[in-house]
Design goal:
The complex is a heterodimer. Chain A is α+β, with helices and mostly antiparallel strands. Chain A has one domain (2-33, 47-523): FAD/NAD(P)-binding domain. Chain A contains twelve helices and 20 strands. In chain A, strands 1, 2, 5, 6, 7, 8 and 20 form a seven-stranded mixed sheet that branches. In chain A, strands 4, 11, 12, 13, 14, 17 and 18 form a seven-stranded antiparallel sheet that branches. In chain A, helix 1 (11-19) packs parallel to helix 8 (236-243), helix 1 runs parallel beside helix 12 and helix 4 (136-150) crosses helix 12 (506-523). Chain A is globular, with a radius of gyration of 22 Å. The model of chain A has no long low-confidence stretch (mean pLDDT 96). Chain B has one domain. By secondary structure, chain B is mostly helical. Chain B is 74% helix and 0% strand. Chain B is built from seven helices and no strands. Chain B has helices spanning 3-22, 28-41, 47-54, 59-69, 74-87, 93-96, 103-130. The chains are: A alpha+beta, B mainly alpha. At the A-B interface, helix 2 and helix 10 of A face helix 2, helix 4, helix 5, helix 6 and helix 7 of B.
Amino acid sequence: MYDAIIVGTGPSAAAAALELKDRNLLILDVALKAEKDIELKENIFDLRKNDKDQQDYLIGREFESLVNIDSTDLVSVKLKAPYVSHVIKNRSTYYKIKTNNFSPYISFAYGGLANAWGAGAYIYTDYDLKDFPVKNPDLQPFYDKLTRHIGISGKDDDLTPFFGSSKYLQKELDLGNNARDIYRSYERRKRFFKKKGMTLGRSRLTVLTEGKAGRRPCNYENTGYFSCNIPYVYAPTITFNQLKTKPNICLKEGFLVESFAEQKNGVTVTTKELKTGKRVVFKGKKLLLAAGTIGTGQIVLSSFKDTETRLPLLDNPFTVTPFVNLRNIGTKIDRTGYEGVQINMIYEGPRYPHRVQGSISSYISPLRADVFFDFPFAIKGNIACSRYLLPSLTILLLFYPDFPKKNNYIKLEDQNTLYINYTDVEEYGAVEKHIMRSLLRSGFFSAPFLVKYQPPGSSIHYAGTIPMGREDRKYFVDGNCRMNNTANVYIIDGSVFPVLPAKNLTFTIMANAMRAAHKIKKEL
Amino acid sequence: MTETNDTANLIQEAEYFYQKIFAAPVPRPILEKYIAANRKKMPRPDERIRNLVLKKADIEAVEMAWRFKSPRNVLTKKIHILIYLAETTPENFSLFFNTKNKRFSSFIVLAGHFVRSMGKFLKGKFLLKRYNLV
C-alpha cells in the first residue's frame, strides 16, 4: 500500500509531490505527451527569417494551428500550436462533456494545463483570501518554498501591497518597447494614475533570469508559444522529471482515474488503463485529488454515483483590449522584451465593486495570421498592418473576480457525461473605457468597439467545485483540504477555492496544495 | 467531382489568389500545403470559389465585402489558409515583419491602404451581388 496516491500531474500535484517526496508515493495520470519534445533554441524572429522547416512547429503536419479556421469552438493561440496542442487533446474522449455557454479547457497532458500557462505567479493577500478559512500567513511559507524551487522573477514595487512579495525573487525581466513606454509614463504620472484608481508594476513570473538547477535563464528567444519545453519557464513536468527518478516515487502514466472509495485504513482508487482498457485498482493510505477543478469534480460525483448535485463552478471572466502605442507604429520588430505578460495593473475604484487585475503584453511571437482578419482593411492593407501596426500593439487582459452563482455549475448527467452550465454572467466594459481614457494620455489608443468579451471558460482559471469551509454544501473540504465525511481523501487543486479573486490562481493552488501535503505528511 | 478535378481547381485557385495578393507565382511548397490544408479543412469543393477564379474577380474586393457581411465565409477561410502558409515561408519574412524603423513612411502606407480598402469595399459590395454571393 502506498503512503499517498496523487491524482494528476498539474501544478497542485507537483507541489504536493514535492512536499511528500520522502514518502512512498504513487502518482496517477493519463499524462499525454507531445509527439516530439522540441526545444527551439534560436530567437523566434531568426527562426522565422531563416528556418525552412518552421511550418513543422508553427503550422503542424496535420495543420493543427489552423484549427480555428473551420471550428466555432475557438482554441487559444498558444494551445493550438502543433507541439502544444496535446495539452488539450482528447479533452472530450474519456468522458462526454455537454455545456451551456461554457468553453471548457480540460487537460489530460503530462503537466496539465500549466504546460501552456502565462507563467504569472500571484500571491493571494488577505484581501483575496477574505472568504477563505486560511489567511496569507498560512500560505506564505509555502509561497517562499515554491519561489525557491521554481525560480520567480519580479520586483518589489507599487504592486507589492496587492501581489505580496518574497525575499527569494530573482531580478525582473527586461521590458519590451511598449511595456517600457507604459511603465515610464506611469512613473512620470503616478499621481494621475493613482487618482484614476490604477496601480501598475512589474509582473512576477515563473521565468528565470538566473540559472537554476540546470535550467538556463531567459534570453528572450520568445519561442514559448510553440513549445512546452522552455527550460527557463517553470512547468510541473520539471518537478516530476526530478521526482520520478527517486525509488520511492512511482509515476504511472496512461491511467485514467474513474473513482475512489474509502476503506478501512485507506482509500482505493479505480482506474482505467488506457492501453488495455482494463480496470486497475490501487490502494493508498491517503488520496490527494489534483485532477483540475472540472476533473476532480467529475471524479467526486462519479465516486458517489451522484447525478443530482450541482457543484458550483467559478471562472475568471476576462476581456481583451488592444491598444496601439502611437509612438511605435512603423517601428522594427521588438527583440528586447519577454513575449508574455510584462506589466500588471490593479484597478480599484467606483467603476467596479471589486479589485480588477490587468495583464499587459505586446504582440511579439504569435503568428501574424492569427490576428490577420481582425484588421479592417482589404488583404494587402492587412499585410501592411501586420508589418507596421503589430509592433505597436499592446494587449490588456482584464480579469474580474468570480463568486458562486446559482446557474454556474457542473453536474453529472450519467456516469459518462458531465454537464457544465454557466449562464449567470455580468456585463463588463466600464473599467475598460476608464482605462482607455487614462492610457490615451500616455499615447496608447483604443476604442470601446475593439474590446473583446471572452466567452465563459476562456480564462482557464477554474475553481470552486468542492469549496473550502463551505459547510452548507453537500461536498466541501475543511481548512486542511480534507473532504467532508471522509478520513483520508484530500482535494488539493482549484476545486477548493470558495471564491476566485481576479488573479491567476496557479501559484496559490500550488502553495495551498503544499500546505495540505505538509499537514498530511505529519499524519503519515 | 473527381479528385483530379478537385486538385486542378485547388491549384488554379492557389495560383490565382497568390498572384493577386503577393504579385508572384505561388511557390511549390505552399501550393502543396494549400491543397493538403484545403482537403483537411474544407473537403467539399465550392462552386462559388471556382466561379470567382474563372471570372478573374477582384479577389481582395470580394473578400473584404464578404468578410464584413459574413466573417467566416469560405473565401476568407481559404485566403486565411494561404496567409498562414505564406507567413511561415522565410522568403515572405520581410512582408510581414518590419526590420527597420519606418515611422513616417508607415503612416503614409497605412493611410494609403485605408483609402484603397474603402474603394475595395465599395467595389466588393457590387461584386457580391453580381456573383450572387449573398
